[in-house]
Amino acid sequence: MIETHKLSKYYGDLAALVDLDLHIDEGTIFGFIGPNGAGKTTTMRILATLLEPTRGRAVIDGLDVRLQGKEVRRRVGYMPDFMGVYDDLKVFEYLEFFAAAFNIERRKRKDIVEGVLELTDLQGKRAAAVDSLSRGMQQRLGLARVLIHDPKVLILDEPASGLDPRARIEIRELLRELKRMGKTIMISSHILSELEEICDHIGIIEQGRLVFSGTLDEIRRRIGIQNKMRVRVTGDPQRAVEVLTALPNVREVRREDGYVAVMYAEGCEIDGSIARALVQAGLDVLALEPEQLKLDNAFLELTQGIVH
Amino acid sequence: MPHHDSWRTWQRCHPIDLFGPIVDKELRIASRHKTHYALRTLYVAVLTVSLAGVWFSTVGLGPVTAGAHQVAAMARAGRTTVFLITAIQFFALPVVAAVLLSNSISEEIERGTLAVLLTTPIRSLQIVAGKLVGRLMLLVLLVAISLPLLAIVRVFGGVPWGFIVTGVCLTFSTAVFAGSLSLLASTWLPRAHQSAVVALAVLVLLGLLTAVQARLAPGPIASPGLSHLWATAALFSPYTVFLQNGGTLNPGLGTGSGAPWVAHCLLTLAVSIVLCLLAAVWLRRAMLVEAFGGRRRFLAGWFGRNARHRFVEQRDVRRLRGPCMFWKDTQHIRPRPWLEPAMVAVVAATFYVAAWLVPPSLASRHVHAALAGIIVFVGLMRTAVLAAGACATEREKRCWPVLLTTLLDERQIVRQKALAILTATLPLWIWLVLHTSVFAAIDVLDPVALVGVAVFVPTGLLLFLGLGMYFGLRATTVTRAVAMTFAVVVGLCFVLPMAAVANPVVGVILSFLIDGRDVYGRLGQLLFMLMFVGPVLVVDVFLGAGFLWQAECQIRRHVFARSGSDGIGD
């Protein structure tokens, strides 16, 4: 659905984006992460037709972003990192204004606006002044706005920034709902734990260069936590290390923060044999779980060495 | 510890402690402003051109001749130069002071830094005094630049020291007054240009007071009581005092009696202190409202952001009608659609009643020409300022990224905004056309006046709309956009002589003054006027269209740039 080829953007001598190659499939949620100034916002602005790339090509739904801007805008809903609102308008008026700006027929506008208000749970605020809404409500209003013309692609720049935990959870649920509706979503965030819960694909960008792009499983493989189990036992952990080291297919066993970490060969189902061996050795198993992917750790590991 | 106590008291009275760190901050910021350097350069350029003009007009370029004639010519040149420089300073610097102080508090409120200041030991009076002194330092510098020049010119002879001292003191006291007023207004009003307008309006009223005093001054045989009352009334207007003291240099200007300028300066400074104290009180309230919420009262409550919130909250949801951008901007420019026509109706009624009470007024073409000139100037200025504000607001509120990802293209945006702005000034133009038609029908005005209105108003609208939109799209804040547009419009209308010929205000006034004794004479005058002004009008139309086209081009160039930001993002 979204593809970029050697996409680059320079502000004078400053390289904001260098030869970015992205591929985002239809109906997926793509998480775009990177430190401040990495080039996330620049990429999103180019895809939203707000910036011209210095070189390279970006394609959305088969349309060239630079050459077919108007057609691209029909298919894309863009939510900037800081969304300005008109303090003279009420919520309904604000959404109706954007419905008209997307050439939606007058007789259809009311139903469409009511629909997106319902989807974003803002019906109770339809007569409130836009400027009087809380930050969380304004973000939801921003999502309602980008949905007004039913775009195939949503580009959301830091939609959860500055929100309280409840508002963040609400936005997350809304994004899941949008994914179920078949939208392709590109989302950037600094809150990496947010992304790992909703994203199918992750792109990590640093200093304008894409350092990694792939699924969460691919990240696990890349940073080597794909075949790792964490075990917690009563009694002597050293005894558990000795027992588990003797198991077939186990490559390495070590103690980590009160747990015993077991690295095993790829393609093996080993959890059953681990539990059996420990019980047979007289150790009670308190916890046995695969290592969880921590995107924060992955981010640090994957960007290691490139940060100056 | 009496010694220690007296030391602390002395420290509290020390100027730096009196003004606090604010004055230091203001001076640092001022030194980084490019506009301040530009202002100084412009000021020196104006002084140099004035000096050169006076020298060539009084002494000339001919060979130096000895004797009494040359000495008299040089003395005349000296007097004229000193009067001109002092007058430029006296009239210009209070205006500059009003503009410099206009965003002093509203800027802090908008940036949300007032509540931060509340958490420091800085007193609100220190903030007010610091702002005033810090920003007026530029004026001290400007006057200081001119002092060596005035001292040199004095060598030519014929220039009393007293006039220079009087001029400088009057300039400073009026500037401090205008600055204090602007500062006080900025604690009430959310926009800098609104504060500047309040201060400038008061200066204009003082100027009108001078005109009224000159018109209604009691004659030499008036009673001593009336004369005394008149002399006391003269104290209130700096312009009266300046012109009367100018009589010492130029007898045509005033009595030369030397009005009590010391008393006036002391009075003005006392009023300024009261204004500063009031500003400190209001500032404290504004700080508390910003820190803890609540509603601001008086002007801030009527015109501030809270007032707009309240109005929007209270009204019903309105359905969108017509083109979306036009509708949205109409909600912003004219939230109460009845207000503008009602105001125009009230002003028109007041004018006609006043003119009816002074019998020959409505029969005088000059009165009609003056009215038409005022209507056209106000209408065009409002058009330009609204255009600048409407475009700059989008950037200030960071709405361009949202707007430019819709299907609206740049041309649609510019056209719909222009339509909304023109609708806002429509009541004024309807009044002008009705007035001209009625008085042309009853033979008070020549029908040529209608032609003048039909030709000059649309051209002026195109030019000023284009100018306003262009500057609105170039400037990073509404205040800057409005200030730039205001300066350019005033410059075009009053400063540049060539533009004064081209400007629509002059055109309409000229067309109202045409006296058609016979058809051929009238046609001849009309033809002359169009031949003279026509080519410049064509230039106006091209310039207006060019600015509008440039405005369209600017929209996507400055989508993200904001004051203090490179707009690069993450």
Summarize the structure.
The complex is a heterodimer of chains A (308) and B (570). Chain A is α/β, with parallel strands linked by helices and 308 residues long.
Category by helix and strand content of chain B? mainly alpha
Assembly type of the chains comes to: heterodimer
Greatest interface: A-B, 52 and 39 residues
In angstroms, what is the radius of gyration of chain A?
Answer: 24 Å
Main β-sheet of chain A, in a few words?
A: 6 strands, mixed
Total individual domains of chain A = 2
In one word, what is the shape of chain A? elongated
Whole-angstrom Rg of chain B: 27 Å
Mean pLDDT across all amino acids of chain A: 83
Structural class of chain A: alpha/beta
Q: Round the mean pLDDT of chain B to the nearest integer and report it.
A: 78
Share of β-strand residues of chain B:
under 5%
Keywords:
heterodimer, A: 308 residues, alpha/beta, Rossmann fold, Alpha-Beta Plaits, 2 domains, 6-stranded mixed beta sheet, 4-stranded antiparallel beta sheet, 11 helices, 36% helix, B: 570 residues, mainly alpha, globular
Would you mind describing this structure in some detail?
- Chain A has helices spanning 40-47, 69-75, 91-101, 106-119, 135-147, 165-180, 192-198, 216-223, 237-245, 271-280, 295-302, and strands at 2-11, 14-24, 29-33, 55-60, 63-64, 76-79, 153-157, 184-188, 201-206, 209-215, 228-233, 250-256, 259-264, 285-290.
- Chain A has 308 residues and is an alpha/beta fold.
- In chain A, strand 4 and strand 5 form a beta hairpin.
- The longest helix of chain A has 16 residues, at 165-180.
- The mean pLDDT of chain A is 83.
- Chain B is an all-alpha fold.
- Chain B has 2 domains: 2-213 and 226-290, no CATH class; 324-555, no CATH class.
- Chain B contains 25 helices and no strands.
- Residues 563-570 of chain B have low confidence and may be disordered.
- The chains are: A alpha/beta (308), B mainly alpha (570).
- The interface between A and B is large, with 52 and 39 residues.
